[in-house]
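User: Sequence in, structure out. Go.
Assistant: Echoing your sequence, followed by the C-alpha cells.
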Amino acid sequence: MTFEASGNDLHSSSIRRILIVRVGAMGDVIHTLPAVRALRAAFPHAHIGWLIEERWAELLCAKSVTRRGPRSALRPLVDEIHTVNLKAWGKSLLTGATVQQIATTWNDVRGAAYDIAIDLQGAIRSALLARWSGARRVYGAADPRESPASLWYTHPVITRGKHVVEQNLSVSAVLIGDREKLSPPDISGDFPCDPLAESSISRRLAELEIAKFAILSPGAGWGAKRWPAEKYGEVARELAQSDIAAVVNYGPGEEHLARTVREASGGAACAMACTISELIALTRRAQLFIGGDTGPTHLAAALGVPVVAIFGPTDPVRNGPYGSRSIVLRSGGSVTSHKRREEPDQGLLSIETGTVVTAARQLLSPNAEGPRAS
C-alpha cells in the first residue's frame, strides 16, 4: 500500500516522537533539512531525533553542546542526535570495540521509543536502520534510490517534485496532512551557530585583511564533477580586479586542489581549511560562492548566499542549489550520470572561465534577481 503526498492517516496528537534517518553525505543532509523544518513547524512539541554519520553531526549540533536535550542556537532543529560510523564499522565489524559502539547506538535509538521513523536516504542500509529503530511506522519514498529499500517501509510514499528537496518535503506532507505542495521553508537558522567557530573565522579573516570575499570550492565527490582547479585560480584573479577576495575551501585529501588554485591565481586566492562549524561561519560571511555539485555549494544556497554552480554529469534540476539566488552553468554536452568516474566530464571542461566570471559579477550586482539556470 502506498500513500499519496496529499493524504494523512495520522492525527497530530499521535505524532510525538519522530526519527529522521539520513546518515550522509553533506549535501544530502542539507537537502533533508527543509522536510525536517516543516515537521518541526507542524509538530512543535514533538521529540525529533536524527540518525546521522558522526562526521556530519556538526551540521546539526555544535561540538560544545550535548546531543540530547533542550534546543538552542547550538542545536536549533532536533532534540536528539544519534550517530553511526558505518564505514569504520564495516572494516572492523567483529571487533569488541565496534560491537560495543553499535550496541550503544542501538540501545539509545530504541530507548528513545520513536513512534515514527522516516528514511529520507532511500538506501537499503538506511531503510534497515529505520526499521530496526523499533518505530511502528516507517515512512520512505515508494520509488527510492535503491529499489529494495521500499520493502522495509510500512508506509511507502509516492513522492512529488523534481528537486530532491521537494521530494523530501512531499514525504513530510503525508504526516503533516498538507493537501497542497508544501512551500520550502527557510532553513538558514537551522544550522548551529558555534561561538568558538564564529570567533575563529572572524579572527582568521581579520588576520588576512579580508572583507568582501567569494568562496571557491574546487572539490567534489568524484573527478567527473570537478571543474579544473586552474580555472578557479583564473576566476580568483578576475574577482580581485573587483576587490573581491577569493577564499579557497577544501576538505581532507583536497590539499592539492587548493594549492593549484592558489598558484594559478597568482596570489589572489588564499586557502582556508575549516571544520564544518567553521565552514558554516565562513559561508555566512561570504558575498558569493562558486563551486560544483558538492556539499559546500548546497550549504551556501541554504544559508542564502548567491551561488554560481558549475555542473557536469549530475542533473541540477534534481540536485542544483536550492533556496538562494543562483546561476547554474551546465554544458549541453553533459550527460546525466552518477557513475563515479575520475576522468573529467567533457561538457564540464567546455565551460569557460569568462562564463563563470560573468555569472559571478551578475550575482554580485546590487540589481541581481532571483534564482535562474543557464
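User: And one key feature?
Assistant: The longest strand covers residues 47-53.
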